[in-house]
Write a structure and sequence with these properties.
This protein has about 270 residues and is α/β, with parallel strands linked by helices. The protein has one domain (about 1-10, about 20-265, about 265-270): Ribonuclease Z/Hydroxyacylglutathione hydrolase-like (Metallo-beta-lactamase, Chain A, 4-Layer Sandwich). Helices cover about 25% and strands about 25% of the residues. It contains 7 helices and 15 strands. The protein has helices at about 1-15, 80-85, 90-95, 105-110, 190-200, 215-225, 245-250, and strands spanning about 30, 35-40, 45-50, 75, 100, 130, 135-140, 150, 160, 165-170, 180, 200-205, 230-235, 260, 270. A hairpin with a 5-residue loop joins β1 and β2 (about 35-40). The chain starts with a helix and ends with a strand.
Length: about 270
């Protein structure tokens, strides 16, 4: 019965019905395009992940304006590619808050002077940390690459630097709601372990193809490995080569006991 109530509440919120967010003991999720999301926790803490905002060619006027984020308490980045690192360092510095990223990427950001050391805490795949009261954060494996392109201010030329290993994140909020953001990844068998160990309520998975899973692989991950209540397709359509579509993802999941939630830039839902 509890699961049914959660699904019904989320469906109503996503469909445009009023939702109260953190004030009613819920987590609010806002899609910011590509792989970027803003979370408002039960206690009102704001987390942004993979904030590719100002340079997103499909971004909206609102999502490209960092001021609209308001106060941010934590920044998460899954890997070093520009369409995920994005505005992460700028948001961290604006708010004087930590940016959690793969350890190698954090080191590069500090050594290159992109972030001060105190805003780039060390973390790697392993046991969970609690960067905010009541919020648990776990890095998971991802099957991808993570080099970082950095423009040397002295030469004006782009350089490639270490970005660490790519990761996903499992975020468990104060009310127990768990989100698995896979970052950029191919399908890998140990997603089954992520499902078994962390039991995410929501999985956010790339479906664009070419550089990540496509709709069929993402559907297999949801249906056979992760088994969440909700699945949100991400990382599609922003660039011409990201050809996978939410419709293909939904078709591939037909009959599976999961609610697929394709979100448009600016859409919100609460759980």
């Amino acid at each position: 019965m509890k699961s049914l109530i959660v699904i019904l509440a989320a469906t109503l919120a996503f469909a445009g019905a009023p939702f109260a967010g953190a004030a009613d003991g819920k987590v609010e999720i806002e899609y910011l395009g590509h792989a970027a999301f803003k979370f408002i926790s039960v206690a009102g803490k704001v987390i942004v992940i993979d904030p590719f905002l100002t340079q997103n060619p499909k971004g909206t006027e609102r999502s490209k304006n960092l001021d609209t984020l308001g106060k941010v308490d934590l920044v998460l980045v899954t890997h070093g590619h520009g369409d995920h690192l994005g505005d992460g360092p700028e948001i961290a510095k604006r708010n004087n808050v930590p940016l959690y990223a793969p350890a190698g990427l954090s080191s590069s950001l500090v050594v290159l002077g992109v972030l001060p050391k105190e805003l780039a805490p060390g973390m790697n795949k392993g046991t969970a940390v609690m960067p905010l009261p009541g919020i648990k954060l776990t890095m998971t494996h991802a099957e991808h690459s993570s080099e970082m392109t950095w423009k040397n201010p002295a030469t004006g030329k782009d350089e490639i630097h270490v970005g660490g290993e790519p990761v996903g994140f499992v975020i468990e909020f104060e009310n127990g709601f768990k989100v698995y953001h896979a970052g950029d990844t191919a399908l890998f068998g140990d997603m089954r372990l992520i499902g078994e160990l962390y039991k995410p309520d929501m999985a956010m998975l790339p479906i664009g193809g070419q550089y990540t899973m496509g709709p069929q692989e993402a559907a297999l991950a949801v249906r056979d490995y992760l088994k969440p209540k909700f699945a949100v397709p991400i990382h599609y359509g922003t660039f011409p080569f990201l050809k996978g579509t939410p419709e293909e993802f939904e078709q591939a999941l037909a009959g599976a006991p999961v609610k697929v939630m394709p979100m448009k830039n600016g859409d919100k839902a609460s759980f």
